[in-house]
Amino acid sequence: MAQITAALVKELREKTGGGMMDCKKALTETDGDVEAAVDWLRKKGLAAAAKKAGRTAAEGLVGVASNGTTGVVLELNSETDFVAKNDGFQKIVSDITAIALEKGGDMDAVKAAPYPGSARNVADELTNAIATIGENMSLRRSAALSVSDGVVASYIHNAAAPGLGKMGVLVALESTGDKTKLGELGRQLAMHVAAANPQALSTDDMDPETVERERTVLRDQALASGKPPEIVEKMIDGRIRKFFQEVVLMEQTLVIDGETIVKKTVKNAEAEVGAPITVKAFVRYALGEGIEREEQDFAAEVAAATGN
Q: Can you tell me whether residue 31 is helix, strand or coil?
């Protein structure tokens, strides 16, 4: 029997897009004959993933999971919303999100981790799922937040199943106080983040280039008014404060009541929680954000399918 080397497995994977374990089995079954192994995979339907890998995947689901002091948010994309509603796809997202929680959100560690109930790792299980479900999929991104003492709260918007939806948010709160009350505050803030989409946690966290660009625009607008230079600078300072109120989490008005500034809401909650509270970080994943979607000509697709 021919020796099944790593180089042979790599060659077959590049030709077919098949999973590592599937390629190894195909080579074993065909005594190391790569071309015969390609046919073996095709017959099993496991080479189909290669053809699908180039197609845009901008739908799918965002998953969140938390164990109290650590939380993770993850995005797994598919080509269509129809697949995102599939129970099998939802199970894959839930399983991988749970693995990501164990691995601290490290994408390489997640992809290399064993997939539950399978001889494959996560990356190969996804390749197998592409062939089985019939759509391209992409494990796009993952992030984790942790606190030493406190709560990492989560929120899912447009939920499709528990912990799965179109948008996922994590908010990390550090405090020695009552964890139940802290969790309630964290969920409120996570819902606010989902709605308000802040760019930064505090004014100190704002990208300096973004702030300077905003100042330049505001300065040009103020100078066009013909006001004296000292008035112009005061106008700029006032408008920058307003800009921060729009894009900085701690300076925003809480969406839930429409009145209280977020940092005041956190301060007010300290009495109920029974200890000081620090908002350490937040993460907001909206499904498909930043992905350039292909324009589809459905009439042309139908014509091509019918031979017209």
A: coil
